[in-house]
Amino acid sequence: MSGAGAPRSGMDTARTAPSALRRAGRIARIEVSEILRIGARAAQYRREGRDVIVLGAGEPDFDTPENVKQAAMRAIAEGQTKYTLLDGTLALKQAIADKFARENGLRFELDQISAGAGAKQVIHNALMATLDPGDEVIVGAPYWTSYADMIAIAEGKAVAVPCLESNGFRLAPQDLARAITPRTRWLMLNSPSNPTGAAYGEQELRALAEVLLRHPQVWIISDDIYEHLLYDGRRFCTLAQVEPRLAPRTLTVNGVSKAYAMTGWRVGYAGGPRELIAAMAVVQSQSTSNPCSVAQAAAIEALQGPQALLAERRDSFQQRRDLVVDTINGIEGLSCRRPEGAFYAYVNCAGVIGRSTPAGKRLDSDADFCELLLAGHDVAVVPGSVFGLAPYFRISYATSAAQLRTALQRIADACASLR
Fold first, then answer.
1. How far apart are CA 382 and CA 396, in angstroms?
2. What is the CATH T-level fold of the domain 31-60+309-416, as seen in this structure?
3. Which residues contact 176 (CB under 8 A, 6 or more apart)?
């Protein structure tokens, strides 16, 4: 018999060695966002001393408004640092309900409001609360990359419907009608859009509503996170406002991240049918519980405080949009439709596909062109294939005009070097 201090046999060691991690099937084919990967590579190049300009992140370069920061500091000083109601304080819910009534003509009771750690969590909660394996969610392509992955994690199936540039990157009613099946549970609608900046006006929403009214099993998630970033005097409207008969099956999602430059505060919210809000609360109760109490206090101030800053920042973004679009359309091989909102330009790069770099590498895809820009010209952008519609790439113009001019010159240089 071996003593207590004797080494274990090889068989015992093998028996106790940890096995390789087996991912759950629902995330087996999902990775961290390609946008984050590109950002990580750009950050590594910067650490190596390269002057990389990142036009990939969907984050305003403005600071959080001072009154919002002061509200957060007051909340800390007053001890608002404990757990709150799991999907938002009553004060925050009231501020959200007031916002919906004031700006969108939508009326919600407090039990029809949910607040979470960002609009992303709110959407995730809705999908987790409603999708069974194989249920379908229609998304117009190009789409924000997280939509498809969140649907997959909830074991649903994303049904991508191409939204062509010739139709302003908007979902055509006839294409929506063809995509609906008995398994369709949701339509995901994002206006203004990430990644194209396309926005739906009242008539376009009415045309989609006519289709949806014929299919009562289809619910709608209206992602309005870029609501306050509409240009050229356009008026924002949302689906439940345009067609009130759809309100009983519409979740209207928004947040403070984009309009108020509060991306890191992580507060998103939604208004919708109370039975859906209650189901979403179940999901949130077993994941994060309440969003940060201090961030909630800041969000109240953002929604209730002075709003003049929104117009000032919108004007700045519009100037940047025009700089980007006008410059891109002067570069041989590229073209860009002028977006109605958000802070993205979706650039058509079909004219450079098939060309070769000075080193002799043929560009066979938008991903190849974006790799050339990052590795060879120190500009980070995101290929359209990531968003479900190629050959394009997305530029985020949520950075300074000076940075944009430098980046655009580098893009022009890259195109001029091709043969």
1. 9
2. Aspartate Aminotransferase, domain 1 (3.90.1150)
3. 138, 161, 187, 208, 211, 212
Given this structure, which CATH class describes domain 66-306?
alpha beta
- C-alpha distances in Å from residue 339, one per residue of 135, 168, 190, 393: 32, 9, 14, 14
> Domain segments of the chain: what residues?
31-60+309-416, 66-306
Rounded to the nearest 10 degrees, how much is the dihedral formed by the CA atoms of 341, 67, 264, 255?
A: -50
Answer for the pair 113, 85: CB distance below 8 angstroms, yes or no. Answer: no
By DSSP bridging, strand 113-116 and strand 157-162 are: unpaired
Whole-angstrom Cα distance, residue 289 to residue 308?
A: 33
The model carries a pTM of 0.92
Q: Along the 419 residues of the chain, how does pLDDT read in single tens digits?
A: 444 555 555 555 556 677 888 888 888 778 777 888 888 898 898 999 999 999 988 889 999 999 999 999 999 999 999 999 999 999 999 999 999 999 999 999 999 999 999 999 999 999 999 999 999 999 999 999 999 999 999 999 999 999 999 999 999 999 999 999 999 999 999 999 999 999 999 999 999 999 999 999 999 999 999 999 999 999 999 999 999 999 999 999 999 999 999 999 999 999 999 999 999 999 999 999 999 999 999 999 999 999 999 999 999 999 999 999 999 999 999 999 999 999 999 999 999 999 999 999 999 999 999 999 999 999 999 999 999 999 999 999 999 999 999 999 999 999 999 99
